[in-house]
Design brief:
This protein has about 190 residues and is mainly α. The protein is built from nine helices and no strands. α1 packs across α4 and α5 packs parallel to α8.
């Protein structure tokens, strides 16, 4: 019988907290069980072992990142929406550096939950791009561009790869401004 008050959501949320608190340590079921005050076998009532825990953290991370993007873009359009999306994306990645890499993985073709979680973020981007009248293949191309630029910057930043003297905020602003300019001229090179 599951421990009163312990649910899959609680187990996964705690796993995500441990991952962020100790990103260089291997996340184990033993450490998770200890932090929850239960024995390892009790976790199996809520998750499908370590792979199930990692999958749960990944799904949760994708949903949370998508929610942050939605919140950032509500009531905004075009350039303002792109700037807000880029800021929210970067902020979320910086606040969740251990979970962020889990959000960029494409969903498995037979994993409906992962497809839905991934699609939620994609739909936010498509709505923002619709403000530039980018639909169909243009929207797909622009989405890949937007994601590559923002992800590239954020990944390099969170890895500590930017050691040059120029201010990172200035560099990110110029990067996003370049993205906005490209989107404004997407159909008219």
């Amino acid at each position: 019988m599951p421990r009163a008050g312990l649910t899959a959501d609680i187990v996964i949320a705690r796993g995500a907290q441990l991952l962020e608190a100790h990103p260089t340590d291997e996340l184990t079921l033993a450490s998770l069980a200890t932090s929850l005050g239960v024995r390892v076998p009790s976790l199996y009532k809520h998750i499908d072992g370590l792979p199930g825990l990692r999958r749960g953290i990944m799904l949760r991370a994708k949903v949370n990142l998508s929610a942050a993007l939605v919140e950032a873009c509500v009531g905004r359009a075009r350039d303002d929406a792109v700037r807000s999306l880029a800021a929210a994306y970067r902020t979320w990645a910086r606040q969740h550096p251990a979970q962020y890499p889990m959000t960029i993985r494409a969903p498995e073709p037979d994993d409906v939950e992962d497809q839905q979680a991934s699609d939620a973020g994609l739909q936010v981007v498509y709505r923002v791009l619709a403000g530039y009248h980018l639909l169909g293949d243009d929207a797909i191309d622009a989405t890949r561009f937007l994601r590559a630029v923002i992800h590239g910057f954020v990944s390099l930043e969170t890895a500590g790869a930017f050691t040059l003297a120029a201010d990172l905020e200035r560099s990110y602003d110029k990067t996003v401004t370049s993205v906005v300019t490209a989107l404004e001229n997407w159909k008219h090179p």
